[in-house]
Structures are given as structure tokens and as C-alpha cells.
Design goal:
binds flavin-adenine dinucleotide; alpha/beta; five-stranded parallel beta sheet; 380 residues; seven-stranded mixed beta sheet; binds uridine-5'-diphosphate; globular; Rossmann fold
């Protein structure tokens, strides 16, 4: 008899498994439908010996000391600050849009206060910021919106920015300074030996058993357990009883090239040309030295593995219905990006599962909020 059946061996499942096993001496079975641990952060050495991320580039960044310290128990780190260039008007310019971007794009030499005035003169006042289009146009105006955001977003989501919540484009700030970094979080680093090694360290505990290549529905009823933690897609759990929640997928095309460097920075975004959105060269992220290099091209698509919840009002409405069903189950707990239908980064998912653990270990098993109350989560 297991105390917990945990569905999914990504960050959401692995964190809660580790906490329950190490701190509460619970016997835990982690069931994972894929043939590996790590969820979407899984990395591996390819045939040429280059460390690559199977499900697209994953860069760790957080403002939470608690999350960083927690993960530091399972990995050493390699400091890494991600930089991204966007291919616009035949140039490669920094994104997020900053002082350097504007000066390079328009051949100017503005100072910080001048660029602020420049952007303010182009920004269009909006009474209410509701959509991703509102967010960008109200900060930088239509022209820059069209150069950097409109087509990238249409490719990535299959939707116009005017059809997506403000929160999506709001992930990308606008800066008046020369900071070319993609993220400004306090902690920015990559697991020194990769994510998979981090997960191996997390899950190697005598109280944890991991079963790979198994959908939990195939073993339900056969393996006894007391409670379940579910980190897969929430609509699948309920057999799509209210219909399918849209998740955006991506096809990853990997290429290994006979050259040491392919591009000038970790990621290059292609808002306006090509069917792919971005190209990432892993050696920048991992620091690996190798005479060859591996890059990944991302082609967004509707069907396929569920990678991105799609933040827009009608999907939030549909999710709310599943959330009510989930809240009414006293012995099943939902955590993670797919199970709570939230566009979370890795650190937010780690924080969400740490919070769930605190709740479970506080002997609150019969106090699970019913009907729509949210678990407290960390927002970066
Ligand atoms: P997942 O990693 O999806 O894990 C869920 C696991 O459950 C999966 O392994 C799945 O196979 C398994 N599962 C599902 N259903 C079942 C079932 N029925 N039975 C058994 N197992 C099941 N975040 C960052 O912080 N930085 C980044 O740079 C970054 N880049 C990203 C790039 C891409 C292309 C994508 C898609 C995401 C990126 N993220 C990034 C987000 C990050 O991947 C997620 O926040 C994190 O991996 C979510 O962890 P999770 O455990 O909730 O979900
Ligand atoms: N985005 C864009 N142009 C860019 C970068 C981002 O339009 O050059 C928009 C796009 O809608 C994207 C969102 O901002 O999906 C969030 O970007 P982020 O890089 O955070 O996406 P992720 O890494 O999660 O795929």
C-alpha cells in the first residue's frame, strides 16, 4: 500500500514526491507515461555527445530564495544569464526591447531619458489593459508591436495578441536601459550536470518508486494507494467531461552542425520570417565545449503533446469548471502547469508543489478547499 500515487515525474510531481518521502516518511509511487523522468525539462546527451533539451530550451531563473535553496540540495549550478536577439528589419537586435534595441533599429544615439520620451510618444493610451495587444501597444506603440510581437504571437499561439490575456505579452518587459538580459531575476543559473541529473538526485530515495512508460489510468485499481497527487492535464483526468482544454504544442527540430558556434547568442527569435518562432543553441546554456553544436528550431502547432495552457477568458471559464470538480475530491491534489492550467515557469511550479507539501504535512488532509479556492502559489 502506497501512501501516495503521484502522476507525472516533472517538477510538480518530483518536488512533492521528494518532500513526502524525505520529510514525512511517506511511501510514494511516481507513475510517468513517458520513458524518462524530468517532464518537459528532460535533457540528454545526443548521439554527438552534446547535452540537449528534448522539449525545448529550459533556462532556470527565479526571485525566490526558497525555491533556489531547495533545488540547490539536488544540484550544483552554472551561472548563466540568457540573452535573446530578434531578427527584425534584416538586423539582429536585443529583445526585450531596450535602449540598445531602439538605437540599433533606428540608427539613433538616444540616452535613457530620451528613449523613454521616444517610446512614450509612440505608446497609445488604453483605458483598460486586457489583451496582449493592449499591453504592448500601450508601452511601445503599433510599429514596434508589429515588428516584434504580432506575428511571433500569431505563430506561437495560433491566435492574434488581441485574443490572448495581457499576461502572455506582459512576460516580456520594455526597458529604458541597456540591459540585454532576457530575465532580471535574482537567481539565474543552469543545473551544472543538467536537469535529468537533478531529478535523479531528487527521486533517489528509498521511499520513492518510479514507474516509467505507464499511464496512471492503466494501473488504477491494481496498485493500492491512499491519496493521489495529479500533475497531468486536468481535462484528461476527468475524461474531458466538459470538453477539451486547449493546450498549445510545439514540434522541435534538432540539428547538429559541424561548427563550434551557429549563432551569436543563446536564442534568436524570428517574429516575421520562417514558420518557426526561435532557434536555440544549447552550448550557450550548458557551457559545454564541443567542436560541433546542436540547435533546436521550434514550430508551434495545435495538436501534439500539451506544452502551453492558452491564457484567454473562455479557457479560464472552462478550466474553472474542472477546478470545481478537482476541489471536490478530498484525496486527490492537483499541482503543476497542466493540472492547474497555468502558464507557469519552472520555479513557479516548484513553489506550487512546495506549498502543497506544507499544506499536506500540516495535517490538513480534511481541509482541502472545496469549490474553486486556489492554493496559494508563488508568482514571480
Ligand atoms: P511537466 O513537465 O509537463 O510534467 C508532467 C508530467 O506528467 C509529464 O512528464 C507527463 O508525461 C506526465 N503525465 C501526464 N499525464 C500523465 C498520465 N496520464 N499518466 C502518467 N504520467 C502523466 N520554464 C522556465 O522556468 N524556463 C524556461 O526557459 C522554460 N522554457 C520552456 C520551454 C518550452 C518549450 C516549454 C513547453 C516550457 C518551458 N518552461 C520553462 C516551462 C516548464 O517546462 C514548466 O514550468 C515545467 O516543466 C512544468 O512542470 P510540471 O511538472 O508541471 O509539468
Ligand atoms: N513574444 C513575442 N515576441 C518575442 C518574444 C515573445 O511576441 O520576441 C510574446 C509571445 O506571445 C510569447 C510570449 O511573448 O509567447 C512569451 O514569451 P516567452 O519568451 O516568455 O515564451 P516561452 O519561453 O514561455 O515560450
Amino acid at each position: 500500500m502506497f501512501d501516495y500515487l503521484i502522476v507525472g515525474a516533472g517538477f510538480a510531481g518530483a518536488v512533492i514526491a521528494e518532500r513526502l518521502a524525505s520529510c514525512s516518511n511517506k511511501k510514494v509511487l511516481v507513475v510517468e507515461s513517458r520513458h524518462h523522468i524530468g517532464g518537459n525539462t528532460y535533457d540528454y546527451y545526443n548521439d554527438d555527445g552534446i547535452l540537449a533539451h528534448k522539449y525545448g530550451p529550459h533556462i532556470f531563473h527565479t526571485n525566490s530564495r526558497e525555491v533556489y535553496d531547495y533545488l540547490s540540495r539536488f544540484t550544483a549550478w552554472r551561472p548563466y544569464e540568457h540573452r535573446v536577439l530578434a531578427s527584425v528589419d534584416g538586423m539582429l537586435v536585443p529583445i526585450p526591447i531596450n535602449l540598445n534595441t531602439i538605437n540599433q533599429l533606428y540608427g539613433m544615439h538616444l540616452s535613457s531619458p530620451e528613449v523613454e520620451t521616444f517610446l512614450a510618444s509612440r505608446a497609445e493610451k488604453k483605458d483598460r489593459i486586457i489583451t496582449s495587444e493592449d499591453v504592448v501597444i500601450s508601452k511601445v506603440g503599433k510599429e514596434l508591436y508589429e515588428k516584434f510581437f504580432k506575428e511571433y504571437t500569431r505563430k506561437q499561439w495560433g491566435l492574434d495578441p488581441s485574443e490572448l490575456d495581457a499576461s502572455v505579452a506582459a512576460r516580456i518587459p520594455t526597458r529604458n536601459n541597456c540591459d540585454n538580459r532576457y530575465f532580471t531575476d535574482k537567481f539565474q543559473s543552469m543545473p551544472l550536470h543538467g536537469y535529468t541529473r537533478l531529478f535523479e538526485n531528487m527521486l533517489s530515495h528509498p521511499n520513492i518508486k518510479v514507474m516509467l512508460g505507464t499511464d496512471y489510468k492503466d494501473i488504477e485499481g491494481e496498485i493500492p494507494y491512499k491519496k493521489m497527487i495529479y500533475t497531468g492535464p486536468v481535462d484528461y483526468f476527468f475524461d474531458y467531461c466538459y470538453g477539451k482544454l486547449p493546450y498549445r504544442s510545439i514540434e522541435f527540430r534538432f540539428e547538429t552542425l559541424e561548427m563550434e558556434r551557429y549563432q551569436p547568442t543563446g536564442t534568436v527569435n524570428y517574429p516575421n520570417e520562417h514558420p518557426y518562432t526561435r532557434v536555440t543553441e544549447f552550448k550557450y546554456l550548458t557551457g559545454q565545449k564541443h567542436p560541433k553544436t546542436t540547435v533546436v528550431f521550434e514550430y508551434p502547432k495545435a495538436e501534439g503533446d500539451p506544452y502551453y495552457p492558452v491564457p484567454r477568458p473562455e479557457n479560464a471559464e472552462l478550466y474553472k469548471k474542472y477546478h470545481l470538480l478537482a476541489g471536490a475530491l478530498p484525496n486527490v491534489f492537483f499541482t503543476g502547469r497542466l493540472a492547474t492550467y497555468k502558464y507557469y515557469n519552472m520555479d513557479q511550479v516548484v513553489a506550487q508543489s512546495l506549498t502543497l507539501y506544507k499544506k499536506l504535512s500540516g495535517d490538513t488532509k480534511n481541509e482541502r478547499p472545496i469549490n474553486g479556492q486556489k492554493l496559494p502559489t508563488y508568482e514571480s
